[in-house]
Design a protein that fits this description.
13% of the residues lie in helices and 41% in strands. The protein is mainly beta.
Length: 1011
């Protein structure tokens, strides 16, 4: 290697061991120091700075080593991050309904779109329109360590790094061959996970060059919720009873008057024998749990290659390429006719029984009490029964809302196939012995193809019901098969289902092009009281993002029954030019009370241009200052203050308004509450539910429609964060180190949308006569066919959850680590503790919204659980030829959100208003709660949980290592809280599977061969 590069690398390598002491488990320190000493010329990647001297950084970095990953037998990057305190579960393998085929990370609970995932300090092409990188694309076999940096890092890495960065550092200068194969299975015999990797590397041309190539394969099987006793049946979080979806089988129909009496209208279920209707609104809910899964099936093939070559004493060229092909399947309960699909049915439909026909005809058209006016007289109804020709004067139809689950057809399956590549090439060298340059360019693309299978088409359901015989439909199409939704479960034939279904496809494409130039090193001058020179980095960068979502006509139209809404076409992009610099100044070194005093700072200027008419754009500045003071060698104080920004992503800018689903267990307009509260009745009427007061229902599955979309007027959000901490490494206790760091992050002008609770509170809190005209109330729109907040997306916008820059986010907490290593004589003892205390995590969508704190709480507003205390502790005994290691992961207790409880109580009291004590729908809501109007007390708390993983690693010979692991050693079960207490993505199978282990005890075995 050339002299200039070698000198710089030797200086950096000398610092690695000192830096690692405060950031990793003690058992990893010697290995890292030995590696650096053995190969001092390898490139040093420092997370949180562009200056390659880890000893001069004030940012605390939490590191997970390859050794820890091997002992845990982590198969994906998501598995690695799940064990790190302070990381809040995001969309991943445990998310089924709501998973788009990717896995993300959410640092500090500030959102998965507010942190960056890096590979060797480089951005990679994002997976989707929100700009998030898919963790499934990380080559785990090559990961040397994972660094997690908290707080604003925009000065170093650009926008998006408001909450911090996760930096995966992969092996460099690898020589030889390494092969890994592993298998994992649950104690119950399901959830098999197979992984195989092969890595090869070699030097060439007398060590001037090195090339590394790796291939890997992974495959996992699903784990069905029905195969776990605690999840076999859906439980209502309020009543505590077995529940499920109102889209059930047999069918349910609205506008039915089964008794033919005054004000007897309602939604009624077909009787079990298929001959008539039930006479009350009671129905058999559909149990969707057995179809849903706790572990999404996954298959991946990946390749990674990197090479470098010294073309001269002053120049080295390098390249890196990564490719991945992933397939993820989400499996949910069967499709059908959801949300009371509005259909028109002839009274001469061949499958409609006489009793059912009479109930439709008996619909009371006059809502006034004491006045009964049927839709059709009995004579008209009887004549219509035999009028099969629409031109017949006796031909009559009824309009009704249909709820029918396609139990005869099987589950809905979404297959997400992602093809990803990212390629980088560059050159670097030395300007002087202490100053280096690096110029590189990179380009990457990601294409995700979602194929949706097993969905009924709403348009074909409507066609198939417009029939007056069992062979043909009134639309005259040859392939239409009349549909029997009037019979018992099992009445729908294969031929009917084949006509009703068709596959649909959504293609999401993203690209990222980037060019970067960097000069860094030291200027050869030092402050008189310091021995190290002042270090600097200056550079410039250009990035161009594009992204699109292209849907076929079925997905665009929202025609898929139970898809959660339409998938509109979206296309957009933006580019950014940036210039930046960093400076580290050692002020005092090796003096009494000033073993080290160092100051550092940096700034970045960014200019954005959005690909939209008029070329809107914005310019931003980010900066940071920090420093360290070590009065003695054993104790160091460090601090940092950073101003960061996050530019709006392509989805936030370009997505059109679209109606989908969100979660809300209690609709204030449901039940009889509006009948005795004039102000509430006026609001419900203003929202489109006036014709159905007293008949409006809360969705049994806890879902409602919500409309949201992008906004080209959005501007970058800003954050200010500060950190203050200490490192303690006493001389009197060799092998011991401890760190403690306080962090405080506040985001203003945050790009946010209201939570469902915010939208409801803005309207229904403190109702007055003026509330019916208040925008917060009138912007909520109900189903014109039922008054419910759930219905067809085309007619029922539901809650409006629009994006604005009015939000505020704030979190603070403490990270702490304790590491200890000691030679016991017969073995080496290593103890490593990483912990987090989160003091607050507040979210305020707008100045008038609730300042909601979600630390230690769960609800539909606090989607993913963020405990107050969390830690992981690993104890390892290393003998001559084997290691034994125990990992203890602790999650603090959490409770039902107090603000959500207050909303439930307010709704219960409103329902009771004006009613006699003997007829209260919600008697004693704060006590026995016989009406099931409040969350069941049993489900209002999840106690603290501890998980233990036991690993054994045997070095069979110098080339072969066997690792055996038992995960969740004590087979700890998750706490059941029902399925309607939180957001569908995270509250599934009656539990929170992204936070708490649902698979149970698992056994893993891995064999590693190196040569």
């Amino acid at each position: 290697m050339n002299t200039t590069l070698k000198k710089a690398a030797l200086r950096s390598a000398t610092c690695v061991a000192a830096f690692a002491i405060g950031t990793t488990g003690a058992y990893a320190q010697d290995a890292e120091a030995d590696a650096a000493a053995a190969n001092p010329a390898q490139e040093i990647v420092v997370t949180g700075s562009l200056i390659r001297n880890p000893n001069l950084q004030s940012n605390p970095v939490l590191t997970t080593t390859a050794d820890q990953i091997e002992l845990k037998q982590s198969n994906t990057a998501e598995d690695i991050l799940r064990e790190i305190p302070g990381i809040v579960p995001s969309v991943g393998s445990a998310v089924n309904n709501g998973n788009g085929g990717a896995s993300f990370v959410n640092l500090r609970g500030l959102g998965s779109n507010r942190n960056l995932v890096l590979l060797n300090g480089d951005r990679l092409v994002p997976a989707e329109l929100n700009g998030r990188f898919d963790l499934n694309n990380i080559p785990v076999a090559l990961v040397e360590r994972v660094d997690v940096l908290t707080g604003g890092a925009s000065t170093t890495y650009g926008a998006d790094a408001i909450s911090g960065v996760v930096n995966f550092i992969v092996k460099s200068d690898f020589t030889g061959l390494e092969a890994n194969v592993s298998n994992q299975i649950t104690e119950r015999g399901d959830g098999a996970y197979v992984r195989a990797d092969l890595t090869m590397g070699a030097d060439f041309d007398d060590g001037k060059g090195n090339v590394v190539f790796a291939v890997g394969y992974q495959q996992s099987d699903p784990v069905y919720q029905g195969d776990r006793g605690f999840a076999a049946s859906s439980i209502d979080s309020y009543s505590g009873a077995i529940s499920g979806s109102g889209t059930s089988s047999p069918s349910r129909f609205s506008n039915v008057n089964a008794l033919g009496v005054d004000n007897g209208n309602g939604t009624r279920q077909v009787t079990a024998d298929g001959t008539g209707f039930r006479t009350t609104s009671a129905f058999d809910a559909f149990n969707f749990n057995p179809y849903n899964i706790f572990q999404t099936p996954f298959e991946r093939f990946n390749m990674f290659g990197q090479a470098k070559y010294e073309v001269s004493d002053a120049v080295e060229v390098y390249t890196r390429g990564i490719f991945s092909k992933n397939t993820v399947k989400t499996i949910i309960a069967p499709s059908g006719s959801f949300s009371g699909l509005s259909v028109v049915i002839p009274l001469s439909n061949p499958y409609m029984t006489a009793a059912q026909r009479n109930a439709f005809c008996a619909r009371d058209m006059d809502t006034a009490a004491g006045v009964y006016t049927p839709l059709y007289s009995q004579a008209e109804c009887d004549a219509a029964a035999v009028a099969t020709d629409p031109n017949d004067p006796n031909y009559r139809t009824v309009t009704t809302g249909l709820y029918r689950r396609a139990t005869e057809f099987g589950p809905r399956v979404s297959e997400f196939s992602t093809t990803f590549f990212d390629y980088k090439a560059g050159a670097r060298g030395g300007i002087t012995d202490s100053i280096n340059w690096d110029v590189s360019g990179a380009y990457g693309e990601s294409e995700n193809i979602q194929t949706q299978k097993g969905y009924w088409l709403n348009s074909r359901v409507r066609n198939a019901l417009l029939a007056t015989n069992t062979d043909t439909c009134l639309d005259g199409s040859d392939d239409c098969v009349p549909l029997n939704v009037f019979g018992p479960d099992g009445s729908i034939t294969d031929a009917m289902n084949q006509y009703l279904t068709a596959n649909s496809q959504v293609v999401t494409k993203t690209s990222l092009a980037q060019v970067r130039g960097l000069i860094n090193g030291d200027i050869g001058w030092n402050v008189p009281w310091a021995s190290d020179s002042v270090a600097f980095a200056i550079g410039a960068e250009y990035r161009k993002y594009t992204a699109s979502q292209e849907s076929d006509l079925l997905s665009q139209s929202g025609d898929l029954g139970g898809s959660g809404g339409a998938s509109p076409n979206i296309s957009g992009g933006y580019d950014v030019y940036e210039a930046y610099g960093e400076l580290v100044v050692p002020i005092v070194q090796d003096k009494p009370f000033f073993e080290e005093l160092t100051a550092q700072g940096g700034a970045r200027y960014s200019s954005y241009t959005v690909d939209a008419p008029g070329k809107p754009g914005y310019n931003t500045w980010t900066w940071n200052v920090g420093g360290t003071w070590a009065p003695v060698r054993a104790f160091k104080i460090r601090g940092n203050y950073a101003h960061a920004v996050r530019a709006p992503n392509i989805a936030e800018l370009f997505a059109p308004n679209n109606t989908g689903l969100t979660n809300l267990a209690v609709d204030p307009c449901a039940g009889s509450a509006p009948l005795t509260n004039a102000n509430l009745a006026a609001v419900c009427t203003a929202q489109g539910g006036g014709a159905y007061l007293g008949l409006i229902e809360s969705d049994p599955a806890g879902q409602v429609n919500a409309t949201s979309g992008g906004n080209l007027a959005l501007k970058p959000e800003k954050s200010n964060s500060w950190k203050l901490g200490a490192v303690f490494q006493p001389d009197f206790l060799p092998g011991f180190s401890a760190t403690v760091d306080y962090y405080n992050i506040k985001v203003t002008d945050a790009i946010t949308s209201p939570t469902p609770g915010d939208a409801i509170s803005a309207c229904f809190d403190n109702l007055t006569a003026a509330s019916a005209t208040k925008e917060a109330c009138t912007i909520i729109r109900r189903d014109p066919a039922s008054g419910n907040l759930i219905g067809e997306a085309a007619t029922t916008p539901g809650l409006f959850l629009g994006l604005t820059n009015q939000g505020t986010l704030k979190t603070d907490g403490i990270d702490f680590t304790v590491n200890y290593g000691h030679d016991l004589g017969f073995a080496q003892l290593s103890l490593a503790l990483n912990g987090n205390w989160t003091g607050s995590s507040k979210f305020k969508a707008s100045p008038s919204s609730i300042n909601r704190d979600c630390v230690g709480y769960y609800s539909v507003n606090c989607a993913s659980i963020q405990p107050e205390w969390q830690f992981s502790e690993r104890t390892t005994l290393s003998f001559k030829d084997f290691d034994v290691s125990l990992l203890w992961r602790y999650i603090d207790k959490v409770t039902y959100e107090p603000a959500a409880y207050a909303d439930d109580l307010a709704a219960a009291l409103a329902a009771n208003e004006g009613k006699p004590a003997s007829a209260l729908p919600c008697p004693d809501p704060e006590g026995a709660d016989a009406g099931g109007c409040m969350v069941n007390p049993e489900y209002r708390k999840i106690p603290a949980k501890s998980y233990f993983d036991l690993s054994g690693r045997v070095h069979l010979n110098e080339n072969l290592t066997l690792t055996l692991t038992v995960q969740n050693l004590l087979d700890t079960k998750p706490k059941v809280v029902g399925s309607t207490i939180g957001a569908t993505a995270y509250n599934s199978g009656n539990v929170y599977p992204s936070t708490y282990d649902t698979l149970g005890r698992r056994y893993a075995a891995a064999l590693k061969f190196n040569f």
